[in-house]
Amino acid sequence: QLQASGGGLVQAGGSLRLSCTASGLAFSRYAVVWFRQAPGKERELVAGINSGRTAYYVDSVKGRFTISRDNVKNTLYLQMNSLKPEDTGVYYCAARTGRIVAWTTLYDYWGQGTQVTVSS
To answer: pLDDT tens digits, residue range 48-64?
Structure first.
């Protein structure tokens, strides 16, 4: 019910925009987020936006990433600029009712993941 897209291979300093389209849920009522999982590491909350459009960012992406949502299109976006090699990983979108939290087990819906690779 969440379909992520937009990943790819980009050089350091480049940009990508990820999208996550929802179906079968009242999208506007959900907090929606992006997690990132780097090779050999745990899944990490990168950015989120709640139903009131308040955004959260992990410190490492502040000023470079922008999260947004279009409740008419039922789509979540993540604009990623000034990409760094350490941004490499599989990016997953997820949704839950209530507030944004960092614990993966508390999310009700997950996208399939999209690979982002940043070369140095």
So the answer is: 999 999 999 999 999 99
Burial class (CB in 10 A: 0-12, 13-18, 19+), 68: middle
CA pair distance 21, 73, nearest whole angstrom: 8
For residue range 10-29, list pLDDT tens digits in order.
999 999 999 999 999 999 99
SS in 3 state form for 28-85? HHCEEEEEEECCCCCCEEEEEECCCCCEEECHHHCCCEEEEEECCCCEEEEEECCCCH
Task: Specify the amino acid at residue 40.
Answer: G
